[in-house]
Amino acid sequence: MKFGFYTLGCKVNQYETQAMEQLLAAKGHTIAPFDEPCDGYIINTCTVTATGDKKSRNAVRRAKKCAPDAVIGVCGCYAQLHAQSAAALGADVVGGSGERTEFIENLLRACSLRQAAVSVPDAMTRRTFELLPAGSLAGRTRAMLKVEDGCHNFCSYCIIPYARGPVRSMALPDAVRAAEGLAAAGYHELVLTGIELSSWGTDLPEPQPLTALISAVCRAAPALRVRLGSLEPRTVTAEFCAAIAALPNLCPQFHLSLQSGCDRTLREMHRRYDTARYRESVRLLRDALPGCAITTDLIVGFPGETEADFAQTLAFLQEIGFAAVHVFPYSRRAGTPAAKMDGQVTREEKADRAGRASKVAAQSAAAYHRAMIGTQVPVLFEQAEGVWYTGHAPNYVKVFVQEQAAQNQVRTVTVTGLCAQGVTAVLD
Ligand code: SF4
Questions:
Q1: Pocket, ligand 1, Cβ cutoff 6 A
Q2: Distance 386 CA to ligand 1 centre (A)
């Protein structure tokens, strides 16, 4: 049978889609583009913002319209929290943000027996990490490996802990085996990801630090570039930095989630650090790995954020000098404490603050790129884009060359200049 996938959201959701594709392919089924008539469709949904909800619902309607007789399967975080509305939209099979293997079995049963199924266990009852096949059916350039699920931080604006449940970690030997398998399959880069990666190992019968996992994976697959998903500032200690500085194949790019540069706002967000602790994390990383890229996420327009608070955030962005900042206007999520807070900021004000923050972020990114001019970096080439061949350096800066560079090959280049999305270079 032929199945089409539509995936929203984070790297963990993308990883789980790739795993579900593998589960179907292993049973002899084929994966087709979502807009083609298929026997079945899987919409892997997201609920991190109101837009995520809306796009998830629209994708269900699109599949229904494209092939009215096909079996529609809906899973992921939106379905986890809104299973009945997913079913009401016309989904035949509804699963949540976990139990992906069972979801695929229910989907295949629905295809053969025309039997609908809604199976969405309470996320808060989950205790075990679901092992899924790693790697994708498509290219062999960069693979994601989900090593952690769930979150117990309950930041006041975030719905994810309710959709994903408590922290569950992949056992270290399983992660090592998966990394070895991906290296043997020809991948050049592996991204260790999770819902809250910094919590990896805290739930294991014998708790382990994240550095144990990172070191084991890097040493098990020395030919792989290993990149880390989003980290919390509390993870970055002197011990953490000493451990990672000893790993030559760990990519020097750290996505250190900030969310606000104002201490009062960070407290209202229930974030577990202040700007002083964040600054210290950045200092430790830059001391241990000079020139490393610090990237981040920022929420603007959090309830109660005043112009003065926001000015502190802009000043902090300038001070740190991020290589990249993902700017998000605050999205009110029903069921979170922040949704009930006074001082909700208008859509116009949020858009204005997002524009100003993006401007500061673009200046810092350009400064970071400018410092790369004249340096030599190994680039993992991924694709042709018009007259350019593009890939990423270990610091995750996008590199553009004009000479032919084969996909999924690492080549050393000399950086020659700046461009809109990164830097230009010539092959050495
Ligand atoms: S750390 Fe905070 S923002 Fe991240 S998933 Fe957990 S609750 Fe959400």
A1: 151, 153-155, 158, 160-161, 195-196
A2: 38
Please report which confidence band the pLDDT of residue 32 belongs to, taking 50, 70 and 90 as the band edges.
very high
* Nearest CA, atom 8, ligand 1: 158
Nearest-angstrom CA–CA distance, 81 and 84: 9
Looking at residue 86, what is its pLDDT?
A: 95
Q: Could you identify the atom of ligand 1 that is nearest to the CA of residue 270?
A: 2
> What percentage of the chain reaches a pLDDT higher than 70?
100
Domain residue spans in the chain?
A: 2-121, 142-368, 376-427
**Quick check: 86 and 79 in contact, CB under 8 A?**
yes
CATH topology for the 142-368 domain: pyruvate-formate lyase- activating enzyme (3.80.30)
Model confidence pLDDT, tens digit, residues 99-108: 999 999 999 9
Distance (angstroms) between ligand 1 centre and the Cα of 157 equals 9
Topology (CATH level 3) of domain 2-121: Rossmann fold (3.40.50)
The CATH number corresponding to 376-427 among 1.20.120, 2.10.109, 3.30.70, 2.40.50 equals 2.40.50
Does pTM surpass 0.85? yes
Per residue in 248-277, pLDDT (tens digit) is 999 999 999 999 999 999 999 999 999 999
Mutate to test the pocket of ligand 1, among 80, 148, 168, 196 (most ligand atoms within 8 A of CB): 196
Per-residue exposure over 347-383, b if at least 16 CB sit within 10 Å of its own CB, e if not: eebbebbbebbbebbeebbeebbeebeeeebebbbbe
| Closest CA to ligand 1's atom 2 | 155
